[in-house]
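Page 47, continued from p. 46.
Same chain as before, 344 aa.
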Amino acid sequence: MAKGKKESLIMTSGEAVGTLAAQSIGEPSTQMMLRAFHSAGISSVITTRGLPRVIELIDARKRPRNPGMIIRIEKKISKDYEKVREIWRKLEDVKLSALMSGYDENLRSGVMTVHLDPERLSSYEITGRTIAAKLGKREDITTEQDEKDIVVKIKKKEGVKSTRTVFVNVLNSSIIGIPGINKAVVQQDEDGTFYITTSGSNIGEAMKIDGIEKEDIYSNDPFEVLKNYGVEAARNTIANELISTIKEEGLTVSYRHIGLVADAMTLTGEIKSAGRHGIAGEKASVLARAAYEETVKHFINAGVFGETDRLSGVAENILIGKQIGVGTGRIRLGVRKEDIKKLK
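Result:
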């Protein structure tokens, strides 16, 4: 009789699930090509793929190379392109340098004239007055605006170098959008609903925008998800990202193995890497820690602090040639006294 879906997920007591998971992920990883390409469904937003992405997730790097979000819109306006476009305008971080055709600066007098680009202004539906008002909030400069240009003057000149620094900061000032969202693209599902994909992730600020489905923002950055949605959501993000990355390479790994790794990484309520700075480096056994990396350091620290190794895990028992508590090694046989007498 064929096993059902639930029964097929059950493991035999004593099965080395950790070793199986490591092997099941490690073997396909060696086949992955070191390349990055456009992710399906995220047009114009390049993401890290393949083995570099797997390493990024397993190492729990706090700053992914290419973070991104998929933002869903509230149902009542999700099919209205103009309203979705209004939300899009509030998302993409647009700097002053992206709205100008050029600039002239006088470092001695501390004056910079920014020449605005009418086409770029119209594409983002923004005016020179809005830009001047935004820059006017800075305390170190004053602004004047005419039809096409914005004149920036430094209030307190302290030398050529500091003047140049202020000018660079002004050119890199955010005029509209959310910091960290470098690019946003409006896309459409098969059912006609619109959604927005972004290059860059900032869930907390995106939640503040009206019209966005606040409980349905997907980010590929587990730390962003942990901060805003909690550890369970972060665990699911790690698992989903690993599965999708492996699938895109044409490989298959059972979700059980991926889920186990994600569970181990988030067991304490935080995201920890699988390496020496995380799970492997925090094992209770001195021998198990020393067997992974930095052998001498672990032995010296254990000697200095008088640590004791109870030999309760797998790695340390293999090292000393003792039977491990996995599989048949979990079984302990006992013989009753009366039976011993009979044998004699």
